[in-house]
Amino acid sequence: MIDIAAQDALELPVDELALHVLEDIVRSNTWNSYNYCLSYTRDENYRAPGAANAVAEAVQWLWAQGMLASEPGNTSAHALFVTRRGHEAMKQGIATVRSINRLQGNLHPVIEAKARRQFLLGEYENAIFVSMKAVEVRVRQLAGFGDDVFGTDLMTKAFRQGGPLADPAAPAGEVVGTMMLFQGAYAVLRNPSGHREVSFDDVTEASEAVMTASLLMRMLDKIERRLTT
């Protein structure tokens, strides 16, 4: 059983509790999810209302995340094995698991196609670089500029008041803010990787950088709709 008090199990987020459960399943060589959950209902330490249910929720979360799967060839509906993803999750820890989940199905399609594979391989710098490069390419295409206009200069010319991507109906402050958002994101997330080695040791920061590029791409979607209607 997990080495966590019942009250702590109730208070932990389900994903964090689930990784503790997963480690225990491996450690105890558990093969049956029904029996595993049943053992908590019989344990004196887990008689607190809802404690055993919290463990059951964690087990179900592991199934839903593809960290547990049905054991091939076993006729029991509750027979399980820990998947490759489950073993990888135990190595990665909760921060990486949450960051990867954050990018699952939530990214702009262009950013997902460019960056998701690199991120899953742990190549965070490359994932951020290609994400922001995709944003730069899209801005240039929508603004109608050539390859000689790039970087923060591109963002300035595209989004400044009267620029090809600036919304003529928007308040001046919003126009400036949009321009500064694109300028700042490019300068902070794209420029450094283009000129030197950059280490993104914080996986949460790296995932949010990719999501920033995704947000910018969705803003460009709206701009494209405005320009074509």
Distance between the termini: 61 Å
Largest sheet: 2 strands, antiparallel
Counting structural domains, the number is 2
Secondary-structure-based class equals mainly alpha
Can you list the strand order of the major beta sheet? 1-2
Proportion in helices: 55-70%
How many helix segments? 11
Q: What form results from the Cα inertia axes?
A: elongated
Computed over alpha carbons, the radius of gyration is 24 Å
Please trace the helix and strand order, writing H or E for each element.
HHHHEEHHHHHHH
Unreliable stretches, pLDDT < 50, 5 or more residues? Answer: none
Q: What is the number of strand segments?
A: 2
The quaternary state of the protein chains shown equals single chain
Residue-averaged pLDDT, rounded?
91
Proportion of strand residues: under 5%
Describe the protein in words.
With 229 residues, the protein is mainly α. The protein folds into two domains: 87 residues, Arc Repressor Mutant, subunit A, CATH 1.10.10; 129 residues. It has eleven helices and two strands, in the order H-H-H-H-E-E-H-H-H-H-H-H-H. It has a two-stranded antiparallel sheet with strand order 1-2.
Question: What distinguishing features does this structure have?
Answer:
single chain; 229 residues; mainly alpha; Arc Repressor Mutant, subunit A; 2 domains
